Each structure stands twice: as C-alpha cells, then as structure tokens.
Amino acid sequence: MHRRRELESKLRGETLGRRGLLKRYEGLTQLRIAPDLHVVKIGGHGIVDYGAPVLKPLAEEIGLLSRKHQMMVVTGGGVRVRHIMDIGLDLGMPTGVLAELSGKVSEQNAIMMSVLLSEYGGTRIHSADLLELPMLLRMGILPVTHGTPPYGLYEKPSEIGMIPAHRTDTGAFLMAEVLGAKSCILVKNVDGLFTESPFDNPDAELIEEITAAELLDLGMEDLVLEDKVVEMLLDAKCVRKVHIINGHVPGTLTRLLDGERVGSIIKA
C-alpha cells in the first residue's frame, strides 16, 4: 500500500481548517512591512468628483505632508462607478463583473491623482507593486494606487442585492493591513461618522469614537464607509483603528497627522 508523502512541518497532515490548529497561531506578531506608512484613501464620490476646488488644495496638502510623513494615496471611484453600476445592474451583470467594471474607474482617478501629485514625487503604482513600497518610499516616491480590491470576477456574492460589497474603502483598509501601516485614513466630504446622514438631517450627531462591534450593533441604515471595513476591523492584526475626516476643510489631514483629535475614529 502506498503511503502519502508529507514534507516535514508543524502543519503536516493538517487540513488548515481545524479550530484547535487555528487557535494555536492566534496572537502571533505579524511582520509590518511599512510600519510608518499612512494610507490615505481619497473618496471618489466625496472628493474627486468635486474637481479642482476641492482636489487641488487637498493634493497640495498631501504633497507637503509627504515630505515629513510616509504616505500612500488610494483613490475611490465616484459618480462614474454609480453610472456603470446602474447600467450593469439593469443588464443583470453578475456581481463579479460589476466589480471588474467599477475597478476601471478608480484606476482612472489614481492616474489623475498621481499626475496632480507629480511635483511631490507622485507615482501611480499597481496592486502588484505593494511589496516594492519600502524601496519606493526610500527613493522619495509618493505612491498612488486605486482602492478597488483585486477580487474582480472572484468577488463573493453580496449578502443583500448584487452590488459588490468589497469596494475602495475596503481595498484601502486591506492594503493598510497587509503593509502593517501606521494608520488608515478615509478622506470624505463630511466631518466624520454621524448618527444619521448630515445631508438629510442637519441635527445628526457626530460620533467621535466608537468600536467596530458597537457600530455594527447599531445597524445603521447608511454608513459613511463600507460595512466590510467595520467587519474586517474586528479581526485585523495590525490596523486597529480607522480615521474618518473631512477633505473639504483644508488643514484637517495636517491636524490629524500632527496628533490633533479630528473627525471620527472607529476602533477594533
């Protein structure tokens, strides 16, 4: 009788799904590739779509900050994603195809943002370039990439409806997590996380700090960030909080990196 041949290792003969095995590795320290990096996600809908009056001052602020801080800029999609998604949904496109389509738009925004930041070393990079980041940062490059995570056609079915659940906020968070970044900052068109949409209810209250579990328990109808970011924050190994700030107010990002309390914090 032939016996299965196994390479000698602590995982020999394991299925990699046994709970006892998984718990054995809980709490291990994960290597941080870029521990001083600030991942700054620029919203497509909340920032890029407003054009030069909002984007140019923010780009200049990011460029100047990049001379003192390690930064990577991540772009969202915006109104053009909504447009292509609307057409795709009407045509009955599968969720994976919708993910492929929407990713093309955030890539376009990354190209524009890198050109806008060229004075400060802004350079468009791809998902496959993340492991080159330590070298790029030492060369004085300000990396710019798009936030759509590369699930593409392998995007998992959404819990509700067909719109892909993993979008650009999630992509920025996952990049920050795998790089072991110092912070993950979502730049929006509101001052932070509110109890309700401040556009619909001007009396909505700003939530300055909340845990991911508490936020999920609230079951809010609409969040300023993607639900998946909050869910993933519960199990994150490196990124233990996410900042949400207003990119329409010049100097807000500077104040945050200077250690001032601004916007909202969602903690693991």
From TrEMBL:
Domain of life: Archaea
InterPro entries documented for this protein: AceGlu_kinase-like_sf, Asp/Glu/Uridylate_kinase, MoSto_subunit_alpha/beta
Any one GO MF annotation of this record: kinase activity
Coiled coil: none
Cross-referenced Gene3D superfamilies: Acetylglutamate kinase-like
One Pfam family it belongs to: AA_kinase
All residue ranges annotated as the Aspartate/glutamate/uridylate kinase domain in the record: 39-246
Alphabetized UniProt keyword annotations: Kinase, Transferase
Keyword Transferase assigned: yes
Name recorded for this polypeptide: Uridylate kinase
